[in-house]
Amino acid sequence: MLGAAMASASAIAVHGLRVRRGGNPVLRDLSFDVASGRVTGLLGPSGCGKTTLMRAIVGVQVVEAGRVEVLGAPAGSRPLRARVGYLTQAPSVYGDLTVRENLRFFGRVLGVREGRADETIETVALGPHASRVVSSLSGGQRARVSLATALLGEPQLLVLDEPTVGLDPVLRRDLWATFAELAAAGTTLLVSSHVMEEAEHCDELLLMREGRLLAVESPEGLRQRTGRRQLDEAFLALIEAEAGEA
Amino acid sequence: MSPRVTGAIAARVLEQLRRDPRTVALLLGISPFLLTLLRGAFDSSPETFQQIAGPLVGLFPFTTMFVVTSITMLRERTTGTLERLMTLPLAKLDLLFGYGIAFALVGTLQALIAAGVAFGALGLEVAGSTAVVVALAVGNALLGMSLGLFASAFARTEFQAVQFMPAIVFPQLLLCGLFVARDEMIGVLQILSDAMPLTYAFDALDRVTTEGSLGARGALDVVVIAGATLALLAAGAATLRRRTP
Description:
The complex is a heterodimer of chains A (about 250) and B (about 240). Chain A has helices spanning about 1-10, 50-60, 100-110, 115-125, 140-150, 170-185, 220-225, 230-245; strands at about 10-20, 25-35, 40-45, 65-70, 75, 85, 155-160, 190-195, 205-210, 210-215. Chain A has about 250 residues and is of the alpha/beta class.
């Protein structure tokens, strides 16, 4: 019993992960766990390795060393493909198909029930645009089509690379509420952002900089440790503290 | 592999084409247009038209499917949809066969229209069965598709992919025996021509249109076309990587 409880406690376990791209180290020896059933934010400036880390977790990144386990199986292994939903940073949907055609296609690949496509279209608030060709939508709308595709199979783990970038504030708030609902229902979410204020919506934070993890803790824990109310200031304090040590 | 997923891929590729009526019009209209031009150009020597138009009906689908497939596949790679597909419960063979089914249908339609115009309006007559010409055309469409799938792995941009048409398709058309009998070429080119799958496609078509049947040699041609198609599909599958640097 205890073993099972412990196994289910972390949805992602990363140990000693190293990735090089084009000869340069992008991830330098990362080790951490992501708790299941919670919203974990992956935050850090552009170019710090967030996308590479997410690619390693969904198993599309060639890694140099280390171990990445997802839902108890090696990242990217066959049984995980129906259980992990991935939102790429650039919308990866078919621009020449309509919103509904895109979701029906991915729905058939995933084998989801009829009607699920329209449900997810509603979740991302694209109902009025369901019959429009994706290339005629705005950038933010296209991103939401891509997000709907990731939600489609009701995966146990959602890996979302900057899902709220470029969205209007109301929509952003609604999406974070959706993420919280999903987590409450048992889904694990790993959500990246380069905007510190988004950290507020997360249960746990992974703070990254230049391929390393600066901190793994809750927003409240981060505030207490650094003594700063604003999370972006707390992040700065961590960077300065590290520079001081070095 | 699953029939549901393979079917989903095929239906999606056809849906994308349906959303692009201009491409469909070009796909279906170019061969009849070129055959009509050829008929006019050889107005004073109709026997030349009779000799080359038959094989051409069967070769057009090869060239168009090559271009269409390499561009479609390149777009899957550059827009990130391929990466997304690779994270889904989908076998590489689902993807390849899905493409195969969709483009075989388009190739069939294309061959039927080209054959209809050539044998009907343009008065083309061949010694053998027109159905065999159409069947060979469909086989060549699949050969073009698998070559296009494989070639797309070596293009980074659509500009490069388009250049593969003159780089990979034209030499095969020049050396297959359509323009010059192969035994009149210099030795090196004969050997090169022996190594090109389109040579066998032309041989089979030429035999049907001039001699009336595929014959024993024709069986070899068909085996080479089918074998090359499968080998190129396997090579194409090897270029589809789930993990990339």
